[in-house]
Design goal:
mainly beta; three-stranded antiparallel beta sheet; single chain
């Protein structure tokens, strides 16, 4: 799986992950 941070602020990160033919985007608290 290949993940990268696409946006960040003081409270959240938006991370985009790609694995083969599908992508997922999720938020995580820091």
């Amino acid at each position: 799986m290949n993940c990268c941070i696409v946006q960040s602020d003081e409270h959240n990160l938006t991370v985009s992950c790609s694995q083969k033919l599908h992508k997922t985007t999720f938020l995580t608290s820091v």
